[in-house]
Design brief:
Oligomer: single chain
Order of helices and strands: EHEEEEEEEEEEEEHEEH
CATH superfamily: Jelly Rolls
CATH architecture: Sandwich
Structural class: mainly beta
Number of helices: 3
Largest sheet: 6 strands, antiparallel
Bound molecules: fe (ii) ion
Distance between the termini: 27 Å
Number of strands: 15
CATH topology: Jelly Rolls
CATH class: Mainly Beta
Length: 206
């Protein structure tokens, strides 16, 4: 049976998308272990643990391979110490699935890491399309003073693997404040993936 075509209005400031089939949110208390300054995080969590750091509106028309998942992500501005608010980040469970992100409002950085630990950063701003190629771990970071809103699209059979970041104790670099801007610094607790772990990532491609 044919899927019915649909159109979805996106509010660039709130990220609300009409006709979304799902919404999920991450509160500060869901983001334990992401930030370098864990003591500062714990203190903030006590008073602001229920604050929503980011939320996603999405539409999943079907589970069929070849279909798409699309939607919006909204992330509030803020920092834990020098480190900007960020998403948990992931690699796609089927590693060779790509994704696009389009800036709706606010400014930020897409932090990308290859299985071998190479880092790339791409600035996000309104009307800029960011392409996340297959096999890159990706996380978005709000480096601005206002919410960062993006729309995204990726294959419906991608899946998300969050453990890859947890197993390495984060991504290889952190995005921190630098005057009025941002910079990357090495993540002191990062553990590089072994050859076997890297091979396991490539083995998820089909
Ligand atoms: Fe993704």
């Amino acid at each position: 049976m044919l899927e019915e075509p649909t159109a979805h209005a996106i509010d660039p400031l709130s990220g609300a998308m009409s006709g979304a089939s799902g919404r999920y949110e991450k509160k500060l208390s869901d983001l334990v272990g992401l930030y370098a300054d864990s003591a500062l995080f714990e203190a903030r969590e006590k008073s602001h643990g229920q604050d929503v750091v980011y939320q996603v509106d999405e539409k999943r028309p079907s589970q069929a391979a070849g279909d798409l998942i699309f939607g919006t992500t909204w992330m509030q501005p803020g920092r834990i110490g020098d480190e900007f608010f960020m998403t948990r980040g992931h690699i796609h469970a089927r590693g060779n699935r790509p994704e696009t992100y389009y800036g709706e409002s606010g400014t930020g950085v897409m932090l990308l890491e290859s299985p071998e630990g190479e880092i790339r950063t791409l600035e996000i701003q309104p009307r800029l399309m960011v392409y996340v190629p297959p096999l890159w771990i990706h996380r978005s970071v709000n480096t601005g003073a206002t919410p960062l809103v993006m729309s995204f699209c990726y294959p419906s059979d991608s899946g998300q693997n969050y453990d890859i970041i947890a197993r390495s104790d984060g991504m290889a670099c952190r995005v921190v404040a630098d005057g009025t801007g941002w910079k990357t610094i090495p993540n002191a607790s990062y553990r590089a993936r072994s050859k076997d772990e890297i091979a396991a990532v490539y083995a998820t491609c089909d």
